[in-house]
Amino acid sequence: MLFATLASAVVLVAQQQSGAGTEDTWWKVANLDRGTELRVYKSGSTQPLNVKMDEANAERVVVIKGKEQVAIRKEDITRLDFRPSAKQPRIKREDHMKTADPGTQVQSPGKLGSNRIPHGTTESGSTLTFGSKPDFETIYRRPIPSPGK
To answer: Does the pTM exceed 0.70?
Structure first.
């Protein structure tokens, strides 16, 4: 029994290392919306390409880099990350209003003592909060080729 469990564990590790059983997620790349932000890691390159998605098929992905369109073969890509679309708006506006009734005691700046407000006053303001973009998520990683037999 112990030998069978150990043998199945060795087979599982060998499958993971050989790439067998790893899912090819290239179909997810083909389903990305046009304009999605991508980070493309090419084999032999130290820095990823920061581009926008245009289209993809079984052999390649076409991206927009600056003002030009570039096709990258699937075989040249080691990893591809995408930035999911934000679920909530990045800019949030909050409005607030404060009204003081006539006769309210207030502390005047720069003067000692308190003064009465002869008429009602209203203070209002707005606050803008800028949210950050969602982080990149890996959508495709080239499967590790199985060793030759």
So the answer is: no
